[in-house]
């Protein structure tokens, strides 16, 4: 079970992980050892509540495909186990980010004093620009 919060967990069966060869520098070892982890998590087929599914699918995240599958590649560490834990942690943080309910914005109005200050500065600026005009004789 991948524990997301106190009352939300994802069964391990819903998370598909496979070992792949890591990219980048590493000499001969990188060509022989499959230490990177390719994690796939299908949002639509998961046991997450519908509210969280819709929020996840609405995210503009490059890790979420059009089909609703989260794809995370863990290749930061040299060992497969560390990469597996890092990928699971990144999945946990992605799902935990949609658990927070966004605060609703209450529109505010500018204060009367701030409006007067703005108009006063506009008047002053206009006066200084007026002085730059042609001198009439």
If you had to describe this structure to a student in words, what would you say it looks like?
The chain is α+β, with helices and mostly antiparallel strands. It has a single domain, classed as Double Stranded RNA Binding Domain, CATH 3.30.160.20. 39% of the residues lie in helices and 19% in strands. The chain has four helices and five strands. The mean pLDDT is 82.
Rg, alpha carbons = 27 Å
CATH architecture: 2-Layer Sandwich
Structural domain count: 1
Q: Quickly count the helices.
A: 4
State the low-pLDDT regions, or none. Answer: none
Give me the count of strands: 5
Distance from first to last alpha carbon: 88 Å
- Percent of residues in helices comes to 25-40%
Strand order of the biggest β-sheet = 3-4-5
Order of helical and strand elements: EEEHEHEHH
- Please identify the structural class as seen in this structure: alpha+beta
Largest sheet: 3 strands, antiparallel
Strand % is 15-25%
Task: Indicate the CATH class.
Answer: Alpha Beta
